[in-house]
Design brief:
Radius of gyration of chain A: 35 Å
CATH superfamily of the largest domain in chain A: CorA soluble domain-like
CATH topology of the largest domain in chain A: Beta Polymerase, domain 2
CATH class of the largest domain in chain A: Alpha Beta
Oligomer: homopentamer
Number of domains of chain A: 2
CATH architecture of the largest domain in chain A: 2-Layer Sandwich
Amino acid sequence: MGKAPGTVTYMGQREGAKSILSVINYDENTLDIHEVVDLGQIDFHQKSEFTSWIDVVGLSDELFIAELGKLTQINPLVLEDIVNTQQRPKIDEYENYIFGVFKMLYLNENQEIVSEHLAMVLMESSVIVFQELQDDVFDGLRERIKSKSGRIRTRGADYLFFALLDAVVDNYFVILEHINHRIEMLEDEVYDNPTNDVAHRIQELKKEVLKLRRQIAPVKELVGRLLDSESSLITKDTKLFLRDVQDHCIEINESLQIYREMSMSLMEMYMSNMSNKMNEVMKVLTIMASIFIPLTFIAGVYGMNFDHMPELHSEHGYPIVWGVMIAMFIGMLIYFKRKKWL
Amino acid sequence: MGKAPGTVTYMGQREGAKSILSVINYDENTLDIHEVVDLGQIDFHQKSEFTSWIDVVGLSDELFIAELGKLTQINPLVLEDIVNTQQRPKIDEYENYIFGVFKMLYLNENQEIVSEHLAMVLMESSVIVFQELQDDVFDGLRERIKSKSGRIRTRGADYLFFALLDAVVDNYFVILEHINHRIEMLEDEVYDNPTNDVAHRIQELKKEVLKLRRQIAPVKELVGRLLDSESSLITKDTKLFLRDVQDHCIEINESLQIYREMSMSLMEMYMSNMSNKMNEVMKVLTIMASIFIPLTFIAGVYGMNFDHMPELHSEHGYPIVWGVMIAMFIGMLIYFKRKKWL
Amino acid sequence: MGKAPGTVTYMGQREGAKSILSVINYDENTLDIHEVVDLGQIDFHQKSEFTSWIDVVGLSDELFIAELGKLTQINPLVLEDIVNTQQRPKIDEYENYIFGVFKMLYLNENQEIVSEHLAMVLMESSVIVFQELQDDVFDGLRERIKSKSGRIRTRGADYLFFALLDAVVDNYFVILEHINHRIEMLEDEVYDNPTNDVAHRIQELKKEVLKLRRQIAPVKELVGRLLDSESSLITKDTKLFLRDVQDHCIEINESLQIYREMSMSLMEMYMSNMSNKMNEVMKVLTIMASIFIPLTFIAGVYGMNFDHMPELHSEHGYPIVWGVMIAMFIGMLIYFKRKKWL
Amino acid sequence: MGKAPGTVTYMGQREGAKSILSVINYDENTLDIHEVVDLGQIDFHQKSEFTSWIDVVGLSDELFIAELGKLTQINPLVLEDIVNTQQRPKIDEYENYIFGVFKMLYLNENQEIVSEHLAMVLMESSVIVFQELQDDVFDGLRERIKSKSGRIRTRGADYLFFALLDAVVDNYFVILEHINHRIEMLEDEVYDNPTNDVAHRIQELKKEVLKLRRQIAPVKELVGRLLDSESSLITKDTKLFLRDVQDHCIEINESLQIYREMSMSLMEMYMSNMSNKMNEVMKVLTIMASIFIPLTFIAGVYGMNFDHMPELHSEHGYPIVWGVMIAMFIGMLIYFKRKKWL
Amino acid sequence: MGKAPGTVTYMGQREGAKSILSVINYDENTLDIHEVVDLGQIDFHQKSEFTSWIDVVGLSDELFIAELGKLTQINPLVLEDIVNTQQRPKIDEYENYIFGVFKMLYLNENQEIVSEHLAMVLMESSVIVFQELQDDVFDGLRERIKSKSGRIRTRGADYLFFALLDAVVDNYFVILEHINHRIEMLEDEVYDNPTNDVAHRIQELKKEVLKLRRQIAPVKELVGRLLDSESSLITKDTKLFLRDVQDHCIEINESLQIYREMSMSLMEMYMSNMSNKMNEVMKVLTIMASIFIPLTFIAGVYGMNFDHMPELHSEHGYPIVWGVMIAMFIGMLIYFKRKKWL
């Protein structure tokens, strides 16, 4: 805030790490993997017969990013978005490249949802991928490139761009599955044991679904914009595949909508269970009090010390009082039985 | 997940079964039914004067599907959708065919709603239908073809495609009827006996309506897209019929919307009944306690053992106390009567 | 269900009655009323200088409808909609006629809302009206034709079509008035005496408003479509009047929306009244118990039988205890008064 | 209802009053005010160099309105809307005039919102204003005309039409202010003293906001339509001012939306306060009962009349029992203190 | 209200202060700061090679504003909006200038959100900024101009306009952060100590979010309109930056939407916690009453004074009664333990 627009400023929480650059060059027959490279080794402008997947890990190295920006002639506003890890999903088309920001979502070892900033730049024959951490959701894709499985090796950079996006979106389904599982667990708990903690976790879930919607929902529209784009960087063939990604995005958005309604239902169910519990508590109290308070009164009457209480001196007084009290007891039981409180 | 896009991967839960192919060829005068056929026996490309209904049951036989894909030159992405039993409804137009995925919904013997994946490919003179199980909602249509009733025998493949879709959509009404019936039953139960289980079933219903909406709602828009399509595969005449299907879809969507609101009303009604019950319980308690606690106090007073309590020795003490107590009792009854608690 | 599309199948509950046909022919100077006519007597195709209002009562006579369809060359899909009494409102334009389905709504003698299926076909110089029962909302219109009041006698079939539709829509206002009246009554009852039955009737009302919306809401859009239509059957002059009908429809939809929100408010008000009642009940209980339980305790203390209880033998013990108890009683009263519970 | 469309029928509740006509003619230099005029004195068709504000008060004089309609050649459908005091806001363009219906809203002496029907017809050089009562919101405007302040005297009839509409919309802000004030008062009352009457008034408020929305919300769109209109009656210059009116309408609609949400929040707050009160009541009851019921039990034990109760004969029995009871009393107080119930 | 449209009337609450004018002229090499200037010193129409930031502080000096309006030939309607501090955000394009109203939002020293009216006029080579108070959010921008950091010194007035708007929007994020912080604090309090005051503050928060939405939400659309504008005042280059501002606006709107849902969740959580507390209170009451009322009854029975009560004279009567009472006590404890109430 307060900085000039277009200033390359890292927004994340992993300051000080150096950016690491790796490159995979491939065509149908060749495969070249360079684990760690220097910026100077890559010629971004020479038209290549290879497709290059250039991977930048670590976004806090502002000098590196600025240097890369100079070499690739990427607009400073784009560089700013690349390192702004709070940037919401977006796709912008420029003359020579298409730039996109997405959120990679995956579960960490504690089964918590991790959201990682991902920026991608599609150029003529290369895709530059910017990510904060080494972890990503692209291992399957790397495997496919190495093993030549699928179409990936026979197609160009636009297909690589699509394949990366597809991997990101595919992983959203894992997250949805996780959310679904949590909803089901909460459903059981609401039914069995609706403690205050369950209510709290339902609200947590609602918040998480809201956050996911924010990170995922824009993607559908962005892909739609790519489909309508007239950029020469994306072939008609690849658009066919992008349409598939769009389908997935629609499905994901629908699921999130449904999860939202289900979490609201959960809360409703919780409140209704609470009411039920309260009803039960009140019934116990009412039954106990309604039965024994009148009986106590009767006992109290014959505990009075008046000189002239003929009942006290009658021989059958005591058993008669017991009789009356038992009759009242049974009467109340029948009454509550009829009301279905017992 | 993690697979290359366009890979034909069965997503359902019925692995290992072989696909069975059957064919019905017909025109106005001829009818040819082949119960079980080999793939090789069908020539998908020869323009035929017959209309062919090609039925594939069983989607886990990936080799078979791939082979069929090769013969029909159906796009691998389409094949992927055909065997992806989780695919949401979609219609895609290609140059030589129109491809659609729908959900067949029917009630099983336990009156549970079953959702079955259905894929259809409309070609020049044939419709290929892909389904997971032998069960389907097309028996009436088969009968009509056999008995030459209606228009079906006099029209082409596009009409067959419509008729299949029409049968699917018609069956949605059966499901709606079932939902409606459940809502009415729940209404009665909420009124008569609002147990926790009823609340649970209302929430179940809400979830089911949400799920149905997801499976059914897209169909309306898809049919709309067919109506706007300029594909030569669908004649203007058939579009007239499709408009009817679209009308039905609109009606179904409206019904689902109404069912959703009604299930929310049910929950509201349930909560209001719970409140009512609680009120009733509390009234019983309050009446019993308010009447007998003061009376018990009076009895207690005259159970005290002070040496100097002149009332105790008065001859009329005891009957007077009884009189006071009865007066208080009657007073309370009148009070509660006035408050309409009795 | 399961029938071939375009099959003329009566869907209502009044099987077996014969259709009755009546005709009113009129122009500015002539008026010809035929109460009961045979189908054969009408020539549907001869261009007439008269405007004909052809009224068909009874839709279960499938033979009659089919015969009429043949004579008028109405599309079988339209015939299907004519006898399908569950058909939602629709307007379809064909080359030679415009077809519409609407719901006539009126109150029966028990002040219940009756919904009657109405189909109308506008042809060059006639309007064919299909209705299930003799009852309808067109008596005022018939009167106007007979008495030559208004414009009706000087205009053509399109104006008649409009006038019929206008009568249907005008009657919706009667229904709205009825709903409004019920809401006001329920408001009073919720305030005065919120029994469970009132909650039930609020829910009934909500359901009825939902159902009305479904039957009425589409009309607005349908009329809009007529206004945009380029059919030569509707003159520019009549469109001016149709715009008025559309205005009414907008107003009706807005009212229904407001009634919906008001019925939700009613339920809220009901719940808040229930809470209030509960609060009141609890206050009575709390006041009674809080006052008398401690007093009873004190009485209990001096009812104990210890040998050495000096207070019991003090001459002023008894009046002092009474004093303490009265002081406590007054103290509690003041306490509850301060809390505004009394 | 049941009347022929286009019949001029007064719909209000002030039957029998005669319509009164007054005219203000003005241009930059001249000002001519005629308090009461006869219809015959006005020439509606002669093109005038003056701008005329023709004011008709009283709409139940159907003969007068009909006569005026004949003289001005206003369409009968428009006349019908002019006298239909239930007509919702609308603007219709005709070849020679633009017709609008609006609701004047103002507060009466009891601070109740009064809604008055207002119809305006903009012609070449005059605006005819139809209102039910002498009261209106145009006094400021009249003053401006008389005192030559602002632009009004230098501009034509379209500016007058705008100025009238502007006065109507400006007064909506007064109403909003009033609503806002009521919301703030209710907020205080909900917080201080949430009686049933407050809930009732919140619901009243909600209803009133709904009604206002219905009367005000359409104006925004209507003005938008005027802005898009190509009628020669409205100059480009005046449209600049109309855009301002539209801005106000947007603001008003937003405010109404916010008031709606705030009244819903009020109800929520009310319910939460009710719950709080209930909690407080229950705590008092629970504390009193939990403390004194066990103590009473102990007193009861030593009130028993068994022959062999050694404690009774112990010299220290009585003080020990008191000690136990006081200890229990203090224990309970500490317990409730810890639970923060005290 | 009641004033003629286009009258310059100050609407704020800081009457009587004189307007203060300051000017910053700059190009890439030159920087000229004039702290306090007279209106006459500025030539608004001479095309300048410098970019001028003209700052007007204080809007209640109507004479000054009117004079400035005359010199700059700004439309009186615009002047009216400039001094109308209640004006909602708007952007209007005129031939020679673009006019915008926004709300500057910042936190004051009490951490309350302050909303300040801001009007800006973009002309050929200058931007006139109107603000009520000396305080603003532009210090960072002034610094950048002075220190030549960023692009600002190398670009024209349109970039200055963008930079000002960017500073305003950037500050919205500070406000969002503040809201977010308050939500988190309330979440904790709802969980720990749900007093009535917390409910009140949740409602306050909801109201504040509503108000913010009203002030912020329109900006997104306004910037969108600037992006579509064909005015020559805004270069294509600057539009690239405006697109960024629009992105921020979208993000802000989404956040506000989420905060709204979260504040509703807070209220739900509060209500559910209240229910929980009530349940707990009721359980304590029920347990205490259910255990001791029956025991007191038993004690009462043996406090009766009948002559013939054989138990009283049995030697083991007293210990047996104690045994029974302890057994009942333990029985009840087990019962409540099983119900998980303890």
